[in-house]
Amino acid sequence: LMKEWTSPIYAFFDATPQILTIDGWQVHEFKCSAWGCKVKIQCYLDKKDVRSTGNMQKHVKGCWGPEVLPATDSAKDANEVCKNIVGSILCTGSITAEFERKGKGKVVYSHRQHTHTETRHFQSLMKTGRPEYFIPSPLTVSRDVKLVFARTHQRVAKMLQEHNSMLSFTTDAWTLPNHCVFVAFSVHLEHKGVPLSIPSDILEVAMVSS
Fold it and tell me: Subcellular localization, per the record (predicted)?
């Protein structure tokens, strides 16, 4: 039967299925090859729809992403899909990694924050091929960054206060192209035989009117 499995959909499952017997029925069990996915699709050999791939397509659409199935339409068989699409997704998470960008227009990047709708599409793209991955919200990332900063600040302060040798302080100032002036302060010390240089603070110099 393996010679008849030419549909591109088989490329998203392990090449060799398990052969089982369930209640006296012969069954081929195909395991999804996506990372972290434990879904297995069962195909009963004694039924008329033994070559039906409907359940496989339904799972691939939900597990690998809705963009994957249309990308397989131009493939001639499962081997081509496995090489050009599945391999690309497993390595990079993108179905476009094997395809060149069409057109010669200018590439424009937006630095604006994602809207709620764009965030949903972004998460769908990032989870393509990895549906089990968790993407934290911007609020969670902001909270964690502030927490890490606060804890690091406490550790550095404690280390400097308990240091029983000399501390050297340096300062530097510079002007940005927009004429804003900043001053930075750094501390230098030797900790357990290792020289350390730690930026302690950066301040913007207030404008002084003449």
Answer: Nucleus
